[in-house]
Write a structure and sequence with these properties.
This protein is mostly helical and 182 residues long. The chain contains eight helices and five strands. Helix 3 links the parallel strand 4 and strand 5 (83-88).
Length: 182
């Protein structure tokens, strides 16, 4: 998409700035930044966190930005239209690395929630009661609150272990991205 015939790079002028807001491989990001710099193009890797639903509900996204601090300063106004939390994490590839580290923590929390729901429902608790009590007790968390465990209830009632393996698979893919494996 960036390189090759009709790639983005073909339309960019020297001194342009490319902001990559995807969740991507840090190894690939470093390579892209290197190739862009050879053409005089600057880059920031700036993935977001806090779910798209969060943006729709009028609370803000967080952006983890890798790249030169001066380039970030040039783009700060643009990024602030999407988020109030803009965190600079040094060089190109560190934004994507931080995003993947964050996702590993998120997925660990999701696995724990799914396992807890499975144990509780197998013991005879109503999943709605689990959700109601945990959301007001010490087990509550950002992940529990904003990842909509109500949708987990439906899945757990159909097949209590399905989501556990789905989440582990996604977690594994994100872990592989950190190390540059595909």
């Amino acid at each position: 998409m960036i390189f090759g015939e009709n790639g983005v790079i073909e339309g960019l002028k020297s001194d342009s700035i490319l902001i990559d807001m995807s969740t991507s491989s840090p190894v690939l990001t470093k390579e892209i930044a290197k190739r862009l710099s050879q053409k005089g193009i600057k880059m920031l890797d700036a993935p977001v966190s806090r779910t798209i639903g969060g943006a729709e509900e009028k609370w803000t996204l967080s952006i983890m930005v890798g790249g030169d601090a001066q380039v970030l300063d040039e783009c700060r106004d643009i990024l602030e239209t999407m988020a109030t939390e803009i965190m600079h994490v040094r060089t190109n590839d560190m934004g994507h690395t931080m995003k993947l580290v964050n996702q590993m923590i998120v997925h660990t929390g999701l696995v724990s929630i799914c396992e807890a729901f499975a144990v509780g429902t197998q013991a005879g608790l109503d999943p709605r009661i689990i959700f109601d009590i945990v959301s007001r007790a010490s087990g509550n968390s950002f992940i529990f609150k904003y990842r909509r465990p109500g949708s987990l209830i439906v899945i757990l009632s159909l097949a209590q272990r399905w989501i556990f393996f789905t989440r582990i698979s996604k977690w594994q893919r994100n872990s592989q991205r950190i190390w540059g494996c595909h």
